[in-house]
Amino acid sequence: MLIRIRRGWELPESAATPEALVMGRRAALGAGAALAGAALAPGGAMAQAAAMRNTRFQPGRDMTPEKDVSNYNNYYEFGTSKSVASAAQRLKVSPWSIRFDGLVGTPREIGLEDLLKQVRLEERVYRFRCVEAWAMTVPWTGFPMSELVRLAGPKPEAKYVVFETAAQRDTMPGLRQGWYPWPYSDGFTMEEARNELAFIATGMYGKPLPPQNGAPIRAITPWKYGFKAPKSIVRVTFQAERPVGYWEKLQSSEYGFWANVNPEVAHPRWSQASERLLGSNERVPTKLFNGYGEFVADLYRNLQGERLYA
Ligand SMILES: Nc1nc2c(c(=O)[nH]1)N[C@H]1C(S)=C(S)[C@@H](COP(=O)(O)O)O[C@H]1N2
Ligand SMILES: [Mo]
């Protein structure tokens, strides 16, 4: 017998875009139309604001106020505190290009505007869980990671994809802390990268990503801890060997490759059973795969011997 599990996208339409947000977006669109040049570019404010929400993914939580998402950040290149928003304004985001290399048909560099002409932007509201046990719910604008993989054109031998992020000596004071393994990078299996939940964000709250949240382009894999969400991507490399990411290089006893969210597997220094919601400071129980098991649990069925949850 075939048992059909009801997925998030089969929820009733009543859960769709709230009117206020639609109105806000129209207003933003109007404002955008008044601007010339840059605002009309695919990665600009217009494009972010015009993206339609994909209602398949229901967060089941209130969205976090934008000011909390943009003022409490992890971006070590700008410092180790959570207050890096003002320092991050120095990030140079234009021009921006991304290099596709490793096991690809043709290694190449692609300008961000050029890349964004080849994808369709959509909005997804995802829960996000940092390994430090804080969480947020964010409307990201972007496109499926599988589309980025398709554009890069990996060879069949590629088993992993690695995202390397910007290392701007002149704008990032954190790079002077020589003991950190710069540049920040992290990766996924090809199956994970092609999973429908894996997302590449270029905006949030209907606007281009602010620098502190990873402008102009970052990864979002909501079933994993937040450190698997590399910001300000400059290079996408395909390879046969499992990559060792920034956090695993820094402290492999605490951070590994898979880093899937699991409330039952404690961090060596704290419990992962619950999380603090940015904004309200409410504590709520953490869910296995951050509540996204229906989409991703199958990826890990045959990996019982692996350290899947840290
Ligand atoms: N380049 C880069 N990407 C990064 C980080 C970083 O320090 N540098 N921190 C990671 C961690 S630990 C988290 S929790 C998220 C935080 O994203 P946010 O600041 O948008 O909430 O970014 C991830 N991506
Ligand atoms: Mo994090």
Walkthrough of the structure:
By secondary structure, the chain is an alpha+beta fold. The chain has a single domain (19-300), classed as Sulfite Oxidase, Chain A, domain 2. Helix content is 18%, strand content 22%. The chain has 9 helices and 13 strands. Strands 1, 4, 5, 8, 9, 10, 12 and 13 form an 8-stranded mixed beta sheet that branches. Strands 3-2-11-6-7 form a 5-stranded mixed beta sheet. A hairpin with a 5-residue loop joins strand 12 (274-277) and strand 13. The longest helix is centred in the N-terminal third of the chain and has 16 residues, at 19-34. It is globular, with a radius of gyration of 19 Å. The two termini are 36 Å apart. The model is unreliable at 3-38 (pLDDT under 50). Ligand MTE binds at residues 73-77, 130, 165, 184, 213-214, 226-227, 229-232.
Name some characteristics of this structure:
310 residues, alpha+beta, Sulfite Oxidase, Chain A, domain 2, eight-stranded mixed beta sheet, five-stranded mixed beta sheet, 9 helices, 18% helix, binds ligand MTE, binds molybdenum atom, TAT_signal, oxidoreductase, Protein-methionine-sulfoxide reductase catalytic subunit MsrP
Broad CATH class: Alpha Beta
Largest sheet: 8 strands, mixed
CATH homologous superfamily?
A: Oxidoreductase, molybdopterin-binding domain
Order of helices and strands: HHEHHEEHEEHEEHEEEEHEEH
Query: Overall pLDDT, averaged?
Result: 90
Query: Any idea what the CATH architecture is?
Result: Alpha-Beta Complex
Span of the ends, CA to CA: 36 Å
GO molecular function, one term: oxidoreductase activity
Keywords: Oxidoreductase
Domain Oxidoreductase molybdopterin-binding: 91-247
InterPro entries: OxRdtase_Mopterin-bd_dom, OxRdtase_Mopterin-bd_sf, TAT_signal
